[in-house]
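>> received
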Amino acid sequence: MTIMQIEKLSPQEYRETAIGTFNVEGAYGPHTVLPAGDGYWIDYYTEKSTALAGIRRVKGRMK
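>> returned
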């Protein structure tokens, strides 16, 4: 994930600069960071395989 600093924001112009990066090891799709008190919430997912994965997928489509 790249941390961007907004330098200019107006109806006519937008400019941002990359100021840092970070990874969440073993995670896919991190795209949102929200401040929460003394920490942060980070939106991401992980890939896991289970014996019931196929059943859950079918049940999810039946709703």
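>> The chain has a mean pLDDT of 86.
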